[in-house]
Amino acid sequence: MGSAKDKIWTEILRSFNIEDTTIRKKYILQLAGKRHRGWRTFLTNKYLKDKENFFVEYDPEYPVKYAIFITEEEWVAFVAQRRDENFKKVSATNRERASNPTYAYKKGRLGYARLEEKILDETKSDATSLPPHVLWKEARVGKDGTVRDDVQHIYDECETLSQSISTAEDQENRSVLSRALNVPEYPGRVRGKGHGCTPTSLYKNPRRRNPSNQEVMETLQALQAQVLQLQKDNERYRCMEKCSSQLKETSEKASINCQNKFPEGISSCQLYLSSPTYRLVGKGKVHNTSGDLLHHRPLPDGHLKVSVDVVLDKDALLPIPDIVSEATLLRDAIGSFVAWPLDLIFIDDETPTKPASKDKGILRHNESVASQKEVFAQGSQQLSQKIGSRQKNKRDLPVTYLPKKGAFVPRYQISLETLVDSSDMATAGAIRLLDMEEDIFGYSCTETIGKEDLEHIFRHQELGVGVIHTYIRFLYDNFMRGNDQLSNRFRFVSSSLVNKALICREPDSCREYLVKRFMASSTNNLYLWPYNSGCHWLLLAIDPLKEVVYFLNSIDGEWTNYPDMKQLVDTSIKVFRSQRQARVPRTKSSNITWIKVVLYSATVSIADTL
Length: 610
Prior knowledge:
It comes from Pisum sativum (Garden pea). This is DUF8039 domain-containing protein. Keywords: Coiled coil. By secondary structure, this protein is an alpha+beta fold. The protein contains 21 helices and 14 strands. About 20% of the residues are buried.
């Protein structure tokens, strides 16, 4: 077979002038094979069949006219192969299928390549090629311009699949057109692109090869580094759990003001959580009645029935998810009943304090917030007023305020904590509400920030969404409000509506929000999105029109380490492209540009670490 191909190629080069033989050789040999099959069909119809297209019973004569091409031995083998019953069966099946195609080609002798050039010239498009399903549909439009319903249905299904199928899936001989038609595909061809087009030539895929020993060792070292990093993260999480469990253990000295028994009936209470940090998350009423049930089911051991009235930490998780409403966040349980651990419920006439003793325990403050006057409104009102008096010496400060023995405490940290202690935010659990205008995140909302958030900033601890959004509000007020140049250039994405938990649980809602934000953009809009990966904040700057994403990571890491986040951004940009009916080249349609912004530690200031 190889010698025959070489002979054919030699004859072709002797008869024709071919410029680029390295690229055209494969296609020309494929075309020669097609012509050869046509010639064999011609011999069959002329010498082996009668006028009624039936095989003759007698032995056909040897075609002396073609003796220079066919030897007598080859002719005998050819006749035997054509008279074989299996060949006749396959030939009849192929003739029947070709005579009545499901989706008939309507362009006559005009091939796919010429048809594509014609469409691009008529539309004056800058694109170099058309998607296969678009070209497939145009090839089945009649002279009157009508499109059959079944053809239009396949095209609409291709448009839907193109928004959900990744680039890798689209290149594995299962394109959106093949999936919509639901027919088997053969390797080496691309449906809807005509003869000679292969996946390699269309997608520019390099041939797969076995990795070298050096590549295997590099991959092994990378995997070992990932395992070590996972072990470090696991150890860190264990330390965090250990610290939170130590806070739960209450010693005798630290439990002097702790109620061993809740009053019967309904009492106002404060709701706390101990993980990942010990903090006040909401207020409500505890229902301490004998035989009380929660949604017609017995309460878990060590829990009481609580109705949630006020949420102070909107990202707080419920200790036990609500099985009726399937709520997992505290903010989704407002006005309903949930189960809450006994050791994290405190009656309003007594606020948990953090005693300055060496014993481990739930640290509580000796001031009550029950007398705080709370005013809840949609505006940016203050919810808490300064109450009582507070001693300012270190003996009265909670344990968490005191540094470790011998540890250095920066002067600015002491000054900031003193400033907060002298304000109306001195009380544990005191909060303020900030109005977030619609221009900031695309919707109006109210952000909560409490004393605990300020302490996290002062001590360079983990920051919550409220702190990040408050800083965004600061940037908006001081740089963008009234400045058309900056406000038209930069916009923000809410970390409350698009975060790791929601991406895993409700990816559709996250994508809809991003697309809605992108659709409101004008020329050269850059969207800033703080993304919390679970234990670390990242920053993404997204240019949806140019389809460029700038990835900012203060620690070493690539965007490939966050596949859910990357897939959400890529899909949102593609949907945004489809909704604004933008046409891009085939080589660009599935490739969103990601650029890693390198940070230099020498330029990072103290403010960058807050």
